[in-house]
Amino acid sequence: MNEAKYIWMDGELIDWKDAKVHILTHTVHYGNAVFEGTRAYQTEDGLAIFRLDDHCKRLFNSAKIVAIKPNMDYETVRQAHIEVLRSNGFTGNVYMRPLIFLGYGQMGVHHVKAPVRTAVAAWEWGAYLGDEGLENGIKVCTSSITRNPNRSTFGKAKAAANYLNSQMAKYEAIENGFEEALMLDENGFAAEGTGECLFIVRDGVLISPPNDNSLESITQDTILELAKDANIPIERRNITRDEIYICDEAFFTGTAAEVTPINSLDHRVVGNGARGPMTEQLQSAYFDVVFGRNEKYKHYLTYI
Ligand code: PMP
């Protein structure tokens, strides 16, 4: 773990090593918490957080969905991101992890009396699926784990509890020699990766499933905007696993994963088995945006 100096907790910056909780912290037992994964990049004009407001909005929406009443207001939490970056003096690119969780003081499944707490941590973190993955793509398997069903979980929330599913899918994928898992929805359509949304390319058309069975992804949204700018035809429709076997290109998007090509699915080589031309075009356009090299999207950056 790339330790930093300070973590923000409930209004205060505290030493990284002191950012601790009691063993009877409600969230540790029952899994109700919401979080974000947000990135800040070293641009020419200094460190800048990408789409900070969109991440903060999703964090507060997630809390609403899982019936957690935040103990800090929106503006305070937004500002905490900036304070954490300023105080730590990072020199590389940074991953940020705001977390609203249920603390110590009340046990039992009925969660509403547990005290709510908020933290924002940040550390320097490179490519989530590896630099090699960004360039040459990753090996993906279709998971035996179905994506969290809408009848019993809340997929619009970036909720800690949703990630048991993702963890099991990721574990299975890695143990079986793959780098990432693709989860299907209850009807057998491609839903999402364990922390990414899916895109495929067929005959020049960029296709991504609707968000009925995936998180409403901020990176996916950015890629769709960039594709529109480049006049790439877009379809939002269901995709089956065998359609991915025969597509021209496939890639995953996520704040952590950025734009990572998929070079094979279930041992079927995707396209030419390398990063495809449209993937490369969109990946490079994405990096231009997050590194502040595209004027049109400068409003997405919060400079520190
Ligand atoms: N799906 C899941 C399950 C995720 O955890 C993530 C990462 N937050 C995504 C999709 C991609 O979302 P975003 O682009 O907003 O990071």
UniProtKB/TrEMBL annotation:
Presence of the UniProt keyword Transferase in the record: yes
Required cofactor(s): pyridoxal 5'-phosphate
Any single GO BP term: L-leucine biosynthetic process
Stated name of the protein: Branched-chain-amino-acid aminotransferase
Catalytic reaction annotation: L-valine + 2-oxoglutarate = 3-methyl-2-oxobutanoate + L-glutamate; L-leucine + 2-oxoglutarate = 4-methyl-2-oxopentanoate + L-glutamate; L-isoleucine + 2-oxoglutarate = (S)-3-methyl-2-oxopentanoate + L-glutamate
Pathway(s) of this molecule: Amino-acid biosynthesis; L-isoleucine biosynthesis; L-isoleucine from 2-oxobutanoate: step 4/4; Amino-acid biosynthesis; L-leucine biosynthesis; L-leucine from 3-methyl-2-oxobutanoate: step 4/4; Amino-acid biosynthesis; L-valine biosynthesis; L-valine from pyruvate: step 4/4
Species of origin: Sulfurovum lithotrophicum
Family the UniProt entry places it in: Belongs to the class-IV pyridoxal-phosphate-dependent aminotransferase family.
Coiled-coil regions listed in the entry: none
Enzyme's top EC category: transferase
